[in-house]
Amino acid sequence: MNPVLKTVSSSSTGYFDEDVFGRICDAITDQGYIVLKNALPLDTLNHLFTGLIDSNPHQFDLAGIGREQDFHTNEFVRTDQIQWLEPDQPFASQYFAWIEELRLRLNRYLFLGLFDYECMFAHYPEGAFYKRHLDAFRGSTNRRLTTVLYLNPQWNPEDGGELLIYRKREKTPIETVIPEFGTLVVFLSEVFPHEVLPANKSRFSLTGWYRINEGLVI
Ligand SMILES: O=C(O)CCC(=O)C(=O)O
Ligand SMILES: [Fe+2]
């Protein structure tokens, strides 16, 4: 093997950067979250972006709060639109392979017991927002780890749309994330309140959750 490639392992769909997985596992252990630029291969990002721009905007539904019987929309809390992603969509296969590899590492090193993963494209039209919230839904604790991947080429700081991450009961954010193409955020879903500020143009993210295998706690 080429020594330059020694920290890179291959999969059926591409190459995994061991260093990136190690940094995510370390950060989740030490501080519960991480913000990383260019964590995923460019090829994987480009496939997702192609899938996103090919998708029919009418397939985006107004996002709701809560799940199943608890589901309702509330324009005072969030005004984004969403579309769930399925693993059998070809443009998403590399992404799901990467996510699965990360799941295995997190379980191996952190014993998180992550069982599966669900994700959605979210479209925030100009002016859309999502007020401060926690991702673990009321009545359910099975979302354990959140991932947010941004797919906005040529995003400038003055375009707004930042993700603010807080510690519970604190008003000053610990992180202000600019939603630039390729930036990935991973955090413990029940631990970090966060919010999306309005942007002055369309903003796209791919948000997902690793879940543990627990039933609803009602
Ligand atoms: O798009 C983002 O920056 C975060 C979205 C979010 O918090 C959510 O969908 O729960
Ligand atoms: Fe969220």
UniProtKB/TrEMBL annotation:
What sections of the protein cross the membrane?
none
Q: Which Pfam families match?
A: 2OG-FeII_Oxy_3 (PF13640)
Supply one GO molecular-function term: peptidyl-proline dioxygenase activity
UniProt cross-references to InterPro entries, sorted A to Z: HIF_prolyl_hydroxylases, Oxoglu/Fe-dep_dioxygenase_dom, Pro_4_hyd_alph, Pro_4_hyd_alph_FE2OG_OXY
SMART domains for this protein: P4Hc
Q: Which domain of life is it from?
A: Bacteria
Q: Which UniProt keywords apply?
A: Dioxygenase, Iron, Metal-binding, Oxidoreductase, Vitamin C
Family annotation (Gene3D superfamilies): q2cbj1_9rhob like domain
Q: Which cofactor does it need?
A: L-ascorbate
- PROSITE patterns associated with the record: FE2OG_OXY (PS51471)
GO BP field: cellular response to hypoxia
List, alphabetically, the PANTHER family matched: EGL NINE HOMOLOG-RELATED, HIF PROLYL HYDROXYLASE, ISOFORM C
Q: What is this protein called?
A: Proline hydroxylase
